[in-house]
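call fold target=Zn(2)-C6 fungal-type domain-containing protein
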Amino acid sequence: MHGFAPSTEPGAAPASSMGTTRGGSFDNSPQSQHTPPPPMQHQHQQQQHNQPQASSSHGHGPQPQHQQHHQSRSVKRPRPVKSCTECRKRKLRCDRLLPCSQCQKSSRMCKYSAEQDSTNLSDTSDMDTAEANRPPKRNCPPGSSGGAGMMNSDAAQTPAKSAGSPSMPLLEELSLRMERLEKQVRVRSPGTDFSGGRIIAASSDTIRGLTVKRGAQGTRYFGQNSPRVLMNLFDEAKAFMSQQRNIYSNSELFSSFRALHRSLQDNFHKAMAPITVFVESMMPVQKRMTDILPRKPVCDRLIACYFDTSETMYRIIHFPTFSEQYDLYWEGKLQSASFLAQLLSVLSVASRFETKSKGLGHERVEGVHIPTACALIRIWLDGLKGKQLVEITTLQVEILLLHAQRMITPRAHDSWTQLGFVVRLAMTMGLHRDPSEFEPRMPVFLGEIRRRLWFTIVDMDLHMSLACNLPCLVRDGDFSCRPPRNLNDAELYPDMQELPPTKPIDQMTDNQMQVYAAMTLGARMRVAPLVNRIDNMRDYQEVLEVGAKLERFLDNINYIFPRHGILDETKKSKQWRSRVILDMHVRRPLLALYRPLAMGVPGVPPQISRAYLRSSMVIMKYLDELDPLLAHFQDIADMYHQILKRDIIQAALSVCFYIQSVVRPNSEGLVLGQQALRMSPDHSDDYPSYSAENLVLWSPARLVTTVQKTLDLLIANVSGSDTKDIICVAIVLETVKTPEPKAQEIARELHGVLDACLRASNLTREKLHMRMDQFQSDNYMHGRASYGYTGSGGTGVPGSMGDLGGWIMWEGWD
């Protein structure tokens, strides 16, 4: 073919390109497909279409100026509007990023419309003059948001159109546009099958499960975070526990573990029982709450601990107001009826971190007894009537009580159930609507306090829902409340008339962590619906898009709380604590989103498996950033274990899965494990930066060492129901370290774990044998079906469990 001469005309594109728009997008509006142009206009456009081709093919010079002007006017056609929906609605100039600068300034949810129909077309010319400081336009439709899930293959395959280059053959161009259109449809309709019906998630028994007791009279649902579910990934570990009742020595070992478990359970239940003399007394509840308070120096220390640790992400109390009432209380001038309940709740939360008994001791010398304090607070709340139920102080006490109870509640389901009442109480009080909607009746000070409370409730709802793998009670679009401002508590006071402007996010304030958490809330709230329908999805696009956003938020945390440059040890540990808490609130949704795909799906994109393994390793290596020789290192380690115990157990089992995938050549997850262990950057990943550590291969030996350190930490803090989780991690680790695990070596390692647990719990073999004799005649396992091994209807291992080893495999599991 003859080469086309470069055209200097703005309207050189042919009018017969079947409704194509600028940038290679496809106009599939009804008008462009079904409404033909008038005959004269169509004939005139065809003549204009043929004239440039003839002149260029015969090498004629440029057309006359009047013809150029006439042609540029005749080929004007609408172009797609690429601004976000919020900027279009408010007629603001959009920079076409995600999120755009306008939505970031006003804290709005930035969204793009994916439909390229006639309603999204502007009336301006197809030619845009180059504007300074404008970012390059996206090669994908606006609804895709340009995240990690959108592959840039279309942009690479579609040549850029210019005035001096020939147009792409029509058939090839339409084919590329149809491919892009199919991708957009798959993103917007994940349940629609465009790929042959292949479901991308792992098998359901590794995502969720149900315990069934007493002939299905009692059931309990468990999600993907539970060790009960994760154990289905390790057949050798389950087989070892099911077969050891036939070996006498190992039967004695499991009997010892059962006695240890029962002993720890009995001690925990005794410590959790409220003190009867306070709970069942006929004295007024205010008097009983006063009687269990410790002395003022102890209260001062606990309050300082609470505001330094807990009142950072979850903003419940205004510190200046609380301090004023606190001073009045000790002076005997207290006027607020709800302050004593608030004070007792604050002391309960702080006692979990600041006392040796972890808030379960009966002595008032070091703190309060959390179960007794919670029982008295609940009695006070149940006695409220009428308008007292919808006061802001009552809601604060409800949130504080929930926060204190979940510190000692072993089941996340119980906290999730109680949170439902708090969410509905807050909505009844109108906290889900922005206070500006009720001005001038709503004072500015209380409006900002309500914003802080609402975003605390939404964040707790999201965290507990992901922990239980259950739906969120609050969804995106259910509230209009705007995020709180990045301000210090001292800048807020009851008589203020106007809020001061918010400070930059990198400036440290009392509310900095909650403000950044609110910035990430939109992406995190998309995780729970995705996880609940993950086994019906047939495309990775939306998962990759949300995961890429969360990864970017994680990278930004290191800029807000830098790891280096702080010389003071106290400030360094405080900054480490803030960074870990904020990192965990973003990393938990990322792990929940990737886990059903990263563990057990052969065709998962490599960036998912690598990101999941990397995040699991980060959780288990948080403490490596601090010097173990610090005076308060042990206190920080205890706090790390209490807050993140479930997370580190899940991370340890997840890393064991990758160890198994690499150590065993015949493993089904061999390719998956190799992809995850290769931590070098890949051009298809959308991660903005890589540290030097990520460029190093993560060997199985390094992973084993990290899991072993995590197991040692769990053993050192063993209590309550931790025995089963410790045995689960220990057996799984021993079965995945070698290609062919041997029962004798596993049993030898378990004997070492038992001795370490006995030392940590201050027990001896003699006391344990006395416990075993006591359990010989009880019905501890009588009538209980075993987890996963109910005959042929179990999870793949035939036979039933015996009384000696069956108690480890959680009962009633189908």
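return ok
The mean pLDDT is 76. DSSP finds 30 helices and two strands in the chain.
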